[in-house]
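Exercise 7. Given the components listed, write out the predicted structure of the assembled complex. Treat all entries as one system.
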Amino acid sequence: FIHLDSIEKTFSNGKLSYHALKGVNLSIDRGELVALVGPSGSGKSTAMHLMGLLDTPSKGRYLLDGLPTSQLTSDERAHWRNEKIGFIFQQFFLLPKFNALNNVVLPLRYRKEKLENPIQIARDRLADVSMLPYEAHRPYELSGGQQQRVAIARALVSNPDIILADEPTGALDSKTSADVLDLLKEINQARQTTIIIVTHDHHVAQQCDRIIQIHDGLIVDDSVSTGG
Amino acid sequence: FIHLDSIEKTFSNGKLSYHALKGVNLSIDRGELVALVGPSGSGKSTAMHLMGLLDTPSKGRYLLDGLPTSQLTSDERAHWRNEKIGFIFQQFFLLPKFNALNNVVLPLRYRKEKLENPIQIARDRLADVSMLPYEAHRPYELSGGQQQRVAIARALVSNPDIILADEPTGALDSKTSADVLDLLKEINQARQTTIIIVTHDHHVAQQCDRIIQIHDGLIVDDSVSTGG
Ligand SMILES: Nc1ncnc2c1ncn2[C@@H]1O[C@H](COP(=O)(O)OP(=O)(O)OP(=O)(O)O)[C@@H](O)[C@H]1O
Ligand SMILES: Nc1ncnc2c1ncn2[C@@H]1O[C@H](COP(=O)(O)OP(=O)(O)OP(=O)(O)O)[C@@H](O)[C@H]1O
Ligand SMILES: [Mg+2]
Ligand SMILES: [Mg+2]
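Answer.
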């Protein structure tokens, strides 16, 4: 379903050239719940941005549901990104001029076929992360962990096929972390949503079915989780 | 040294009024290494901003080194903030147009008496967090954990009397987290720097001398750490 074949990613800005991914091979089937772990700077967010179609590889191929992504039209890429992939960013990226409710409902306004009750759906997702009482708060009126939870609600609102969660519990206390992980596991089991979680938290990694370890731009281990 | 007396903080934006701190009493002596823990939204960052003179209480008094902070002139407040307090923000707040080295050296440019070799000092602090090879990278050219480490180096560069670290290891893997905590403990012991660390990581909290628990804007526990 998600297939990375000899993927390389190099960042250059004229003066310096940085090889963030040096030849990554990875196959993830539909419905898998996968943890991606590794040291700071090892390439996790870079890999997530490639899988989320937010960036393109320097070398290698990315096949998504059998299709070479290099051959997608820009409309098709936008369709995947907006409706089929839900991305929870390491830095949240909520829009500062919108309150929590409007941040969460925004992806639904971009759909081709409009839904009947987008506000109710957005409220349900906020309730899922215990943030409904804060629907009128703007991002700067929320704590770090509250902003993270709004970013999570926003990624879920389109019922995506794939959820890419880049450190979704980094700013959360252990109880709230456990709630978020239970929510993601429930979505994975109820809807066969493919979920990839970047995490530095071993408790979170152990609760996934499979753990992929990345180090210095290469995958160094890829095995079934023993459940901790 | 840091003394909060019946501190309350209420945020209002016309429509909604939120009591983030509801009567906090806290005394921290010079040279203490204290963890501040509690659920997401409980008031930790709010308390840190008050202690760092980045915000003022709605009620109550904050005495710093015996002085009522409400009576500080704005020059004195700036002096404390820029030279005596090092603040590591939950969201880093690096300046996007400056590279890592320039972000770290910037506080030294604001001092009244200029130092002889600010660039070397900045490089030493970057080396302390293993970020010297990245001195020319701008924030968007760094991973989340790398940005966090640059923010830490920046907070240390003025040799402050007080370090306020708001979740300094949130984006770091366990090895890098342990390195950062060792660095902070070393500074605490070598220079009697007063350090307050907000953390969701129990390993980090256990390594401090004292753990303060906050819940819904009130302190619910304040005791010596048992060392985990
Ligand atoms: N400007 C504001 N207006 C309204 N409410 C606010 C504002 N700033 C913070 N709050 C509220 O104050 C409470 C405390 O926020 P704070 O940032 O101190 O929490 P925290 O303990 O640091 O949480 P986290 O662990 O998630 O970072 C939160 O419930 C938040 O919604
Ligand atoms: N635009 C860029 N230009 C240069 N180097 C970059 C750029 N973006 C990322 N890098 C480098 O690529 C490497 C991988 O970054 P990435 O963000 O994928 O790491 P990560 O595994 O997510 O780390 P963390 O756990 O700290 O978030 C880092 O060493 C970073 O410095
Ligand atoms: Mg990252
Ligand atoms: Mg906070």
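Discussion: The interface with chain A takes residues 11, 13, 15-16, 18, 37-41, 44-45, 90-91, 136-137, 141-146, 148-149, 166-167, 170-177, 200, 202 of chain B (CB under 8 Å). The helical segments of chain B are 44-51, 74-84, 100-109, 118-128, 144-156, 174-191, 202-206.
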